[in-house]
Design a protein that fits this description.
Layout: E1 5-7, E2 13-21, E3 31-32, E4 36-43, E5 46-50, E6 53-57, E7 61-65, E8 70-73, E9 81-88, E10 91-92, E11 98-100, E12 102-104, H1 107-122, H2 127-163, H3 170-177, H4 181-192, H5 196-214, H6 219-225, H7 231-241, H8 246-252
Helix pairs in contact: 1-2, 3-4, 6-7
Amino acid sequence: MEEQYLDLDRIPAYLFSAYRIFEENETHIDRIADFDVLLLALEGELAFREEGRDIRLGPGDWYIQRRGRRQEGLSAASPPTYYFIHFIGDYGDRLAHCIPLAGIFRTDTMKPMLSRLREAEANAASAVEKSACFLSILSMLQRGGQRLHSAKVEEIQSYILRHYRERLRIGELAERFFFTEDYIIRLFRRHMGITPYQYIRKVRLEHAKQLMLSSSQTIAAIAAQTGFPDSVSLHKAFVQDVGVAPGVWRRRH
């Protein structure tokens, strides 16, 4: 699926917003909406399936549900509290001024802005005032997203460096860091130019090289110590990334 962005050069039209708190065992409604929805998760976990993809939002996650897409409720680990904003926006690919369809935010700086928007809604403020609050929120997501995403990538990298010897799966990383698998892959591609799987393989290869240079262990033993399932997997990774077999590389160095 081609990645899409909300176009901020075309001002989105604000419609309505409110806080939402789920009861125990309550789930997201099944629907196809004729408006876009910005979801800002504050507590618990908001879980739903959109066009066949499972989405789970934890505190500090935001997500844009695009109009015309089907959402179905999923059971969650704990009832969510979140803020939703209905609007109509335009979308495109890699626009100059835009935000992606998902990201993370700082709840401490976002909550006052949400309170202002909710107050404007409750007091029947003008459409201009409510739209101004909404656009300020979008601007904050755009400004803060890059910095927060970079910090999150570093956090995931740190976890991989500590656990590269284990059998790491993208799904496990997504569950641990409260992202979808697709979103973690997009994060790594955007900030590092490679996928999480490629980064894991790179870390394992570097440690395998160190052991090949500093010890007389067999390739199979080194593979077992660096997270590869077997020597065949290490051999394939070496040929693909380094260009030669591990034994050849070892003799040359």
